[in-house]
From TrEMBL:
<comment type="pathway">
    <text>Carbohydrate acid metabolism.</text>
</comment>
<dbReference type="Pfam" id="PF13671">
    <property type="entry name" value="AAA_33"/>
</dbReference>
<keyword id="KW-0067">ATP-binding</keyword>
<comment type="similarity">
    <text>Belongs to the gluconokinase GntK/GntV family.</text>
</comment>
<keyword id="KW-0547">Nucleotide-binding</keyword>
<dbReference type="InterPro" id="IPR006001">
    <property type="entry name" value="Therm_gnt_kin"/>
</dbReference>
<dbReference type="InterPro" id="IPR027417">
    <property type="entry name" value="P-loop_NTPase"/>
</dbReference>
<protein>
    <recommendedName>
        <fullName>Gluconokinase</fullName>
        <ecNumber>2.7.1.12</ecNumber>
    </recommendedName>
</protein>
<keyword id="KW-0808">Transferase</keyword>
<keyword id="KW-0418">Kinase</keyword>
């Protein structure tokens, strides 16, 4: 029998933190925003957490290196840790291209679920070109594709091909999350 809160309803389990990840143009931000709305949890876009120097570097067409990413990943990790600690869960759109970046995020908030969005290069270039005002130019896409390390079996998550609409991706993500949450409780 589940314990009940003072109102007599079963208490809500702490919600997981979700990192919607992938290269530029994969649909991270749109999908993550919609997923956060559907889950009724906080949303953050890791692009908003970049130090100014990172944005300037990317706008000039130069890819970030691991030293550039360190403070940014720490900021994203703090956001995830805080959402995990307060039990609200949360969804963040974050490239998280390499395993060591994801490990850094998991060190901050161990119950992260990764949703990796993928798409064909031509589709990604088209999306990046259409969005206009973003600081990430299409010229950096190949460096991101080269850096992308797929999820490994011990990383909780799922991979979705990014040609799905954000709504379809969210439906599939919620199904995958339900399986993970149910598996954790059972």
């Amino acid at each position: 029998m589940n314990p009940v809160d003072v109102a007599g309803a079963a208490p809500r389990s702490p919600l997981p933190c979700v990192v919607v990840m992938g290269v530029s143009g994969s649909g991270k931000s749109s999908t993550a925003r919609l997923l956060a709305l559907r889950l009724d949890v906080p949303f953050a876009d890791a692009d908003d957490m970049h130090p100014r120097a990172n944005i300037v570097k990317m706008r000039s067409g130069r890819p970030l290196d691991d030293t550039d990413r360190e403070p940014w990943l720490a900021e994203v990790g703090h956001w995830l840790r805080d959402r995990a600690a307060d039990g609200t869960g949360g969804v963040v759109a974050c490239s998280a291209l390499k395993r060591r970046y994801r490990d850094s995020l998991r060190a901050a908030a161990p119950r992260i679920f990764f949703l990796l969005l993928t798409a064909d290069r031509a589709e990604l270039v088209e999306r990046i070109t259409e969005r206009g005002e973003h600081f990430m130019p299409a010229s950096l896409l190949d460096s991101q594709l080269a850096a992308l390390e797929p999820l490994e079996p011990d990383e909780p998550g799922t991979v979705l091909h990014g040609t799905r609409s954000p709504r379809q991706a969210v439906d599939l993500a919620i199904t995958s999350l339900d399986e993970v949450i149910t598996g954790d409780q059972g």
